[in-house]
Design a protein that fits this description.
Keywords: Cobalamin, Cobalt, Disulfide bond, DNA synthesis, Nucleotide-binding, Oxidoreductase. It holds the Pfam family Ribonuc_red_2_N. InterPro entries: RdRp_reductase_class-2, RNR_2_N, RNR_lg_C, RNR_NrdJ/NrdZ, TSCPD_dom. By secondary structure, this protein is an alpha/beta fold. Strand 15 and strand 16 form a beta hairpin. The strands form eight sheets. Strands 3, 4, 5, 6, 7, 10, 13, 14, 17 and 18 form a ten-stranded mixed beta sheet that branches. Strands 19-20-21 form a three-stranded antiparallel beta sheet. It has a two-stranded antiparallel sheet with strand order 1-2. The longest helix is centred in the middle third of the chain and has 29 residues. The protein is globular, with a radius of gyration of 30 Å. Among the domains are: 339 residues, no CATH class; 176 residues, no CATH class; 134 residues, no CATH class. It has 27 helices and 25 strands. Helix 9 crosses helix 10, helix 14 runs parallel beside helix 19 and helix 15 runs parallel beside helix 17.
């Protein structure tokens, strides 16, 4: 059983150096100066100011506040709030509380530089000073950032935990299973994420040594899930970050595939029974498997059986004997159906993952971290860092290859220093971290960079450009790792993995030479090939200091810290953004990447201004004056704008992953968002294409799938429901009561359908009419079918339909139900009803406009006057014009609402979060739901 890590650090693994040429002399590294000037503090080159940081929740109350914070003037208010609330250490309100970004960065850089000195990383004092200055510059200028645990812990604890991502093993015995539960719990407590492959646990149809049958991995998953739900993450209220994997050949694979979707259906039933449907509410807290991402590990053998419609046989864990045989396509279909219903499971392509494995001489890769970007040996950890690509644009809009390469050198050196001085949760993870030294350098702002360069995200040229940058980053990182190995020795496990690792480096290099030059500058194209030439040559001579160097993480919180418009590999969400002001409030602005793109595309300033003005007013760039049709694709975003039609299709996301994957040690954290009307067949096609295109993993998320019913549950189902409740119960024969006569609609009748949107909640009203044009039935179909809102609206529509058919005047219903106030409410986009106080308010004001004569209409202008009724209904006065500001932006952020309205609320401030890779991030306070 693993023990807690001792406090004694391993100084850069010197005890375990055994590179190809044996133990190297620790002569230290020479560090070149590029961004900074000798004798000048990089912090003094920035303009600074004092601000007050404040984060308010959905109820308007402050959830965080700190005054007099020293911040670079160039940093946004959001970056200020995120850093102050997440990364400043010390008890708020005490002298020990940090209050300066300058001092925060110094705390981290001073510590890393001190560690580097102790570890023999610097050849001279000048090299040490240069490293300190260059790293400070990169961090203060928002050109790079480490993962959150570095900011949390470095310089605060003597031996800090610095890694965000962990992979844990489990064996087929109770001792190991319970140890895994404990290890996961401790990781969740400190805010890190973990993943495990449970295929080593025997299936539920296999026998135990003492007789009887085993529980199976899915049963143990319930226990793991319960621990994760209770402990939460980082001691906060958010869900733990966790990945659970099962191999497709495991005898319980079908139970695993169905487990989360079956629980989803239970949650629906609880919601329909009236339980709280929110992300942390009673409905979802009462069902299992809500604290993890689930993935099925499939081999090429399985995928070929799917393509060829062949059989698939599961195997016993203990002895490998054949168990059950299915049609491979049936298993694949089950995976797609479950993902269509609840978003899980995703797929990890085992053969592809292990064909790019640098340390296959040690063991195979079985699992990943929660977001699927870190894939390596069991019982290992990875610290992450990301580069902000937009800060490597030149004045002319080109990519600064030289600056980027130097930044990679500094970051890889800093991350390598971190490895040996970090704390790890178990002895096995500590040993593997020191023996194999995996790193996870990545980037953010790719989507913004492509747009600013005038390249569509979904284009061959855009993909070539992205692939070349990723290739340069990884090639340069391996070359730097080999230079460090020359001075300090290769990683301890290199000797038995030299052949497979060099083989992988050659595969990377071959892919670099196969990038098409379209869209890539000559300098960038040549540099990325040269980087791999150097990496291979130096690696063959000296080995490598690190077994892995790159991943593409979601960059949630640190993306806010760097003021990135886009995170990780993602495209931009929308062309309209909302910016927090220093003095409070929000400012609606056109995405600042748009002017850069128009300039790069050659539009004169006057035409560019016309286009921007149109975008600002219409909230879509489609139809803008002067804009050439061939340039429209440059401005396509992840989500369709409220008033436009264009967006990036799901295949465009997969193709971008395909372009970058050959140049990553690990994988890519990305969920392929699909529209709500995507079919099971679409998901099957997405999974199949991902395998064919060489991705290591894929997860899909059909917008609106959470807390919903299948999309084929629509009006026909509503009609069936009405039929069951339409007839009143028989009355007693004695003392008959007066009965209203039901006026049924003809079998064929005219109808009108109206689409609406209220505060990001979309739906359709369909009114069936009598021959005289009067309304006789109402159908309400919400985009969030199956949610409590949709269920109530369905029942409500049935009640209204019956009321109309039994003769209740529409005016009575309008008078009673217009202007009722509850959530969701907000702007509607309908000029006749610009703001709705609730869905009910909108429905009856629309019915009033459509079906009541003018003399019967309720005038909004007199709402302030008292209304005398038998049952008084509170009707607020009309809002003054200056108060009419959207609680949520009409687009931009609302584009996110329209497409991800079922995302969870932020655990810190309560705002609705958005997807970031396979996790979620909060645009209000910067919190994340994954392993940040």
């Amino acid at each position: 059983m693993d023990k807690e890590l001792s406090s004694k650090p391993s100084v850069n693994g010197k005890e375990r150096r055994n590179g190809r040429k044996g133990r190297a002399a620790a002569t230290g590294m020479s560090v070149e100066r590029f961004f900074t000037t000798p004798g000048v503090d990089p912090a003094d080159e920035l303009a600074w100011e004092y601000r007050s940081a404040s984060i308010t929740g959905e109820d308007g109350k402050a959830v965080f506040e700190q005054k007099n914070i020293e911040v670079p003037k160039s940093w946004s208010m959001l970056a200020t709030n995120v850093v102050a609330s997440k990364y400043f250490r010390g008890t708020p309100g005490t002298p020990e509380r940090e209050s300066s970004v300058r001092k925060l960065v110094a705390r981290v850089v001073d510590t890393l530089t001190d560690w580097g000195t102790k570890g023999g990383y610097f050849a001279t004092d000048t090299d040490r000073e240069t490293f300190h200055a260059e790293l400070t510059h990169l961090l203060l200028r928002q050109k790079a950032s480490f993962n959150s645990p570095v900011w949390f812990n470095v310089g605060v604890e003597a031996q800090p935990q610095c890694s965000a991502c962990f992979i844990n093993s489990v064996e087929d015995n109770m001792d190991s299973i319970l140890t895994l539960a404990r290890t996961e719990g401790m990781l969740f407590k400190y805010g890190s994420g973990t993943g495990s492959n449970l295929s080593t646990i025997r299936g539920s149809k296999e026998l135990l040594a003492g007789g009887g049958t085993a529980s199976g991995p899915v049963s143990f998953m319930k226990g793991f899930d319960a621990f994760a739900g209770v402990i939460k993450s980082g001691g906060k209220t958010r869900r733990a970050a966790k990945m659970v994997i099962l191999n497709a050949e495991h005898p319980d694979v079908l139970e695993f595939i169905r487990c989360k979707s079956n629980e989803e259906k239970k949650a629906w039933a609880l919601i329909e029974a009236g339980y709280d449907p929110s992300f942390n509410g009673e409905a979802y807290s009462s069902v299992f498997f809500q604290n993890s991402n689930n993935s099925v590990r499939v081999t090429d053998e399985f995928m070929k059986a799917v393509v060829n419609d062949g059989p698939w046989t599961t195997k016993a864990v203990r002895d490998g004997r054949p168990m059950d045989t299915y049609k491979a396509r049936e298993v694949f279909r089950e995976i797609a159906e479950a993902a269509h219903l609840c978003g899980d499971p995703g797929l990890q392509f085992d053969t592809t993952v292990n064909s790019w494995h640098t340390c296959s001489g040690t063991a195979r890769i079985n699992a990943s971290n929660p977001c699927s970007e870190y894939m390596f040996l069991d019982d290992s950890a990875c610290n992450l860092a990301s580069l902000n690509l937009m800060h490597f644009r030149t004045i002319d809009g080109d990519f600064d290859v030289t600056a980027f390469r130097h930044a990679v050198d500094i970051l890889i050196m800093a991350q390598e220093i971190i490895v040996g001085f970090s704390r790890y949760p178990t002895e096995r993870i500590e040993k593997n971290s020191h023996d194999y030294r995996p790193l996870g350098l990545g980037f953010a702002n790719l989507g913004a960079l492509l747009m600013a360069t005038g390249l569509p995200y979904d284009s061959a040229a855009g993909r070539n450009y992205a692939g070349a940058i990723t290739s340069l980053m990884c090639g340069q990182a391996y070359a730097t790792s080999a230079r460090i190995a020359e001075k300090l020795g290769a990683f301890a496990g290199y000797a038995k993995n030299a052949e497979p690792m060099l083989g992988v480096i050659r595969k990377h290099r071959k892919a670099a030479y196969n990038i098409a030059p379209d869209g890539v500058s000559e300098e960038l194209y040549a540099a990325q090939k040269a980087a791999w030439d150097e990496a291979l040559a130096r690696g063959e001579e000296h080995g490598f200091r690190n077994s892995q160097v790159t991943v593409l993480a979601p960059t949630g919180t640190i993306g806010f810290m760097m003021d990135c418009d886009t995170t990780g590999i993602e495209p931009d969400i929308a062309l309209i953004k909302y910016k927090k002001l220093v003095g409070g409030g929000m400012l609606k602005i056109v995405n600042q990447t748009v002017p850069l793109a128009l300039e790069k595309l050659g539009y004169p300033q006057t035409q560019a201004q016309d286009i921007i003005s149109y975008l600002d007013k219409q909230e879509t760039i489609e139809g803008a004056p002067h804009l050439k049709p061939e340039h429209l694709a440059v401005f396509d975003c992840a989500f369709k704008p409220a008033r436009g039609q264009r967006s990036i299709g799901w295949m465009g996301h997969i193709q971008m992953m395909e372009a970058c994957q050959p140049f990553l040690s690990g994988a890519i954290s990305k969920t392929v968002n699909m529209p709500s009307n995507a079919t099971v067949e679409d998901i099957e096609k997405a999974y199949l294409e991902a395998w064919k295109r060489g991705l290591k993993a894929i997860a899909v998320y059909r917008d609106g799938c959470k807390r919903t019913q299948p999309l084929n549950t629509s009006k026909d189902t509503v009609k069936d429901t009405k039929a069951k409740v339409a007839e009143p119960e028989a009355q007693p024969a004695v003392k008959p009561e007066p009965r209203a006569v039901r006026r049924r609609l003809p079998d064929e009748r005219r109808s009108i359908t109206h689409k609406f949107s209220i505060g990001g909640h979309e739906g359709y009203l369909t009114v069936g009419m009598y021959e005289d044009g009067k309304p006789g039935e109402l159908f309400i179909v919400m985009a969030k079918e199956g949610s409590v809102v949709s269920g109530l609206m369905d029942s409500f529509a049935t009640s209204v339909s019956l009321a109309l058919q039994y003769g209740v005047p529409l005016k009575v219903l309008v008078d009673k139900l217009s202007h009722t106030r509850f959530e969701p409410s907000g702007f509607t986009g309908n000029p006749a009803i610009p703001i709705a106080k609730s869905i009910t308010d909108y429905i009856f004001r629309w019915l009033e406009l459509k079906f009541l004569p003018k003399e019967d209409e309720t005038e909004d202008a007199v709402l302030a006057a008292p209304t005398v009724e038998a049952t008084p209904v509170a009707k607020p006065a009309a809002l003054p014009a200056e108060v009419v500001t959207p609680a949520l932006p009409v687009s931009g952020l609302s584009a996110t609402w329209l497409n991800q309205a079922d995302a969870p609320p932020c655990h810190t401030c309560g705002a609705i979060m958005v997807r970031s890779g396979a996790c979620y991030k909060c645009g209000n306070c910067g919190a994340t739901s994954g392993c940040s």
